[in-house]
Write a structure and sequence with these properties.
- With 518 residues, the chain is an alpha/beta fold.
- It has 18 helices and 15 strands.
- Strand 7, helix 9 and strand 8 form a beta-alpha-beta unit.
- The longest helix has 20 residues.
- The chain is globular and about 80 Å long.
- The protein starts with 5 loop residues before the first helix and ends with a helix.
């Protein structure tokens, strides 16, 4: 390792993106292979399938002089990225499903984490950017919301600890199965802005940070988390001048030294608008390394990023020893994962059916009554039921699983899907409600990058309120289910029953149908 050039060392610190669905394109695959031959340390994988993507990843490993560290966002299981893998509920849904004091629930959580661990590692992925240990204490948070375990530090700490320990258990040859990652340091929960687009400001004082945002990260470090991801934020109480990604006070003084964290410090994606709208790619890379970042994640141009850091060393702005510190940590992590053992090891077969059953059970248990109970539902499947889907993302297919299930179970059923830019058929709404004994309002609003909100548009809110008012006037029972943000339910207090589902996955939509039919 000591004979490696400066450029080869810096390349170990860079983790560009690869798109799984494109790996069967010869030209695209050749571009990835070229980066590998230049010594790239690893990649963050987006998309693909469980049949082909692992094969391409093995091919790439065979080309690498030093094993590649393959990472991916699998907050909700391998199925979040690879078709055919098992998708599990959001972290908020899992926290709703699992009672910390119930042994059966804890065992169910352990089985889920085992499923994620086995599926992910056998797919050729070694590092998971999970768990999210932000405390979501701002209901208007547009990007964390249901990705977090909840609003209380102790809840986040407990579930974060379970995820970290479950994901990092030993693998078959005695090595570590996965590298877990606590994110988004020092806490992205108290903002109504999305760092994919702008630089959010956390205005909490140091006392509040120590009481609310920072405890889950301290606990994660104690639990031996392998990685911590730094958010693109401005937190004046920690550093009034620099974004956290560039802040030596935050990364080196607080996390590395103050919390005694000896693992890998990873940036959030470097192409995000929080930084990329103001700073050049070169400046972002150098400032991040200066602050103490080990892995430069998702740069717009990997080669340009390497050039910038190499140039900074050659000009004396960065020291070669600073680069070596990060490289040593990266190589040590790869060794703990057993990646230098190139021998093929027999892998156990994966029971995907069993894993889907775990997801289904979690989905059933995740549903939470915010108002009312199952005893408030109209009896029997002969009741005339109307379901109105409010989809904030202009996706008329969002509630298809729910609607199909209700159509199969209720003999007298009608439905209508409404999106923000569609005309509201007022007469049809009124007729459908007047003919119903029960009205179900199903709300969908994705938590997604650069969307800018986790709620719904004013127009959809007003339509929903009109539906509930009409139901009340006609004497129909009303039920509101939010399949994403639970805070949307606060808009519809007029309903007889309000249910938080926390996730729109098919298993949860089916669970809602079963709940409605008793």
């Amino acid at each position: 390792m000591n004979t490696r050039t400066l450029r080869e060392n810096v390349a170990q610190m860079v983790m560009p993106r690869i798109d799984g669905p494109r790996l069967d394109e010869p030209g695209y695959r050749s571009s990835v292979q070229a980066l590998i031959r230049e010594g790239m340390g690893g990649f963050i994988l987006f998309g693909g399938d469980i049949e082909n993507t692992p094969r391409f990843l093995r091919e790439f490993q065979g080309l690498a002089e030093i094993p590649l560290l393959i990472a991916s966002d699998v907050e909700r299981g391998l199925g979040q990225q690879l078709t055919g893998g098992t998708g599990f509920p959001s972290q908020r849904a899992v926290a709703s499903a699992i009672s910390r004091s119930a042994k059966k629930d804890v065992a169910l959580l352990d089985r889920m984490l085992e499923a994620v661990r086995v599926e992910t590692r056998q797919a050729g992925i070694h590092a998971v950017f999970s768990p999210v240990v932000d405390v979501n204490n701002n209901p208007d948070n547009p990007i964390i919301c249901t990705r977090a375990f909840g609003e209380e530090p102790d809840v986040v700490e407990w579930f974060g600890s379970k995820y970290i320990r479950g994901l990092q258990k030993p693998w078959g040859n005695g090595s570590q199965a996965l590298l877990a990652c606590a994110k988004h340091f020092p806490g992205h929960g108290d903002t109504d802005q999305d760092s994919h687009s702008v630089l959010p400001v956390i205005n909490a004082d140091r006392l509040r940070l120590n009481r609310l945002e920072l405890p889950p990260f301290r606990e994660a470090v104690k639990d031996g988390v392998a990685m911590v991801m730094v958010a693109h934020l401005l937190v004046p109480a920690l550093d009034p001048e620099q974004p956290t990604t560039f802040s030596k006070k935050t990364i080196t003084a607080l996390l590395r030294e103050g919390m005694a964290f000896d693992g890998l410090i990873v940036s959030d994606a470097l192409d995000m608008g929080a930084l990329a709208e103001k700073y050049s790619q070169e400046d972002i890379a150098v400032r991040a390394v200066e602050a103490g970042i080990d892995i430069l994640l998702h740069p717009r141009d990997a080669r340009l990023t390497i050039d910038a850091v190499v140039s900074a060393v050659e000009r004396g702005r960065l020291s070669a020893s600073r680069i070596q510190e990060s490289v040593d940590r990266i190589l040590a992590a790869k060794a703990r994962l057993g990646l230098f053992d190139r021998a093929e090891h027999a892998q156990p077969s994966i029971d995907y059916l069993k894993h889907r059953q775990i997801a289904q059970e979690l989905g059933r248990k995740a549903l939470a009554f915010v108002q009312g109970s199952k005893h408030d539902f109209p009896p029997g499947t002969d009741m005339a039921v109307s379901c109105f889907v409010l989809d904030d993302d202009n996706n008329s297919a969002s509630g298809n699983v729910l609607l199909q299930g209700m159509k199969e179970r209720f003999r007298n059923f009608s439905s209508l899907t409404l999106v923000p830019d569609a005309d509201m058929p007022a007469s049809r709404l009124k007729e459908s409600i007047q003919a119903s004994g029960c009205v179900v309002l199903a709300v969908f609003s994705r938590i997604s990058a650069s969307k800018g909100r986790s709620g719904i548009s004013d127009r959809l809110r007003n339509i929903g309120l009109e539906i509930l008012h009409s139901a009340k006037t006609s004497g129909a029972r009303s039920i509101v289910v939010s399949f994403d943000s639970p805070y949307i339910l606060d808009l519809f207090r007029e309903a007889d029953v309000r249910i938080a589902a926390y996730d729109r996955m098919a298993e949860i939509q089916r669970a809602v149908v079963e709940l409605l039919v008793g």
